[in-house]
Fold Cytochrome c oxidase subunit 2.
Amino acid sequence: LKTLLMLSFTAIVLSACGKENLTALDPKGYGAEKSMDIMILSIVIMTAVFIIVAIIFTIAVVRFREKKGREDYIPKQVEGNHTLEIVWTAIPIVLVFVLAIPTIITIFDLADTAEAESSIKVEVTGNQYWWHFDYKGEEIQTSQDLYVPVGKKVYLDIQSSDVIHSFWVPTISGKMDANPENVNTMFIEAYEEGVYWGKCAELCGPSHSLMDFKVVAVSQDEFDQWVEDMKNVNPEEKPQDAVASEGQDLFEANNCMACHAIGSSPVAVGPNLTNYANRTAVAGILEPTKENLVDWIMDPESIKPGNKMTGNYPEVSRDEAEKIAEYLMQLDHSDVNPESAGGI
Ligand code: CUA
């Protein structure tokens, strides 16, 4: 049954987007697995109810249809049947309990914070239209790609800097709203190494559907290495390359740092650009190529309508944008990258 469900639904999901690890129907994490169990339970119950009702309905239609020669026949008139009424009231009540009990147990299970104190904690902030990640106690700030160790619960404090968003990585976890005025908590746990697609799951503006991010699940050793690398980022570091060096000067001259930090600075008006060379995407949605980054710098509005970068920095020429892109594309702060997790 599970295979059948997966085949039919995965076909729909894949035909819609063609992205790997963007499905709730092939769970590779704790929350997604629990959600899948509940989905299967409710689909089994619904299917059984549908089949039984359809059979009774078909029998009634066939058996009591108008027959030749007895057009005036009126069947026996029944008013009230206590046994029948008790049965059709009791069955739905039992079904509601069968659905509700595992659902409530799962809700409490997924809200369990018993291991929160000893686990990795990340403050997640949704912004129109990108995600900021602040590793508590580590002085690591990053955006868009959330690195986690495989097989470990990672606790997330989820909030928003503007409107309501929703954090959702379908293959490994359920959804959690990111609200401007309160913090919601959840944990995620990936069972397998991999790059998992995340989506904003709450309509938040014109580029809501483009507010993608990734969870990069790597081995514990690689994660430790990544943490070490990220803690030792020197934002002042000069690139070797002459073009990139010019790009760095332009980056500073155009005041890009008013919004974008490199390193552990808490500035987060725009995405933190540390380790940009290893990003899985440009602006969350485009292939991570220099050309796409140049296009983004030149005209972000055409790529993500309503984003806050548009109009908030001086116009740069294509030549200047290429130099800035070169600089960003050389911000390679760790050997642990999406390829370590098996690529996208
Ligand atoms: Cu953020 Cu939809």
The CA atoms of residues 293 and 341 lie 23 Å apart. Residues 126, 129, 165, 200, 202-204, 208, 211 surround dinuclear copper ion (CB under 6 Å). The domain at 242-341 is CATH 2.60.40.420 (Immunoglobulin-like).
